[in-house]
């Protein structure tokens, strides 16, 4: 098993940037595909981005393309989400997740989850 802990959330003005981190412990993170999801109040959890075990391939939800970048450092057992040009509609709790697959975009395909970190974007 792997345990995931997110950090880096906070309050930022529209147009600003944040970098989220997800630290993995337990089983080595390089054996998992990793993803980020987000959930706004009263809404369902939505896919943000995913990265394969090697980090060679990434994919994004359409509304995040060009603004968000997912990356990983397997030596540090950490995955990152760089978020630029933030908008008020990006406000949500952001979750890091791990899948036994190399890649997945559905939340139901992920096996392990962090507790989330709050991101609030003010207008």
Would you kindly provide a written description of the structure presented here, covering whatever features stand out?
The protein is mostly beta strands. It has no helices and 11 strands. It has strands spanning 2-7, 10-13, 18-26, 33-39, 46-51, 58-60, 68-73, 78-83, 92-99, 112-113, 117-122. The strands form 2 sheets. Strands 2, 4, 5, 6, 9, 10 and 11 form a 7-stranded mixed beta sheet that branches. A 4-stranded antiparallel beta sheet has the order 1-3-8-7, with no helix packed on it. It is globular. The N and C termini lie far apart (40 Å).
Mean pLDDT: 96
User: Helix tally?
Assistant: 0
As a percent range, the share of helical residues equals under 10%
Taking the alpha carbons of the first and last residues, their distance comes to: 40 Å
| Amount of beta strand | over 45%
The whole-angstrom Rg is: 13 Å
Structure classification: mainly beta
Largest beta-sheet characterization: 7 strands, mixed
Count every beta strand, where a strand is a DSSP E run of 2 or more residues: 11
SSE succession = EEEEEEEEEEE
- Which spans have pLDDT < 50 for at least 5 consecutive residues? none
Instruction: Tell me, briefly, the overall form.
Output: globular
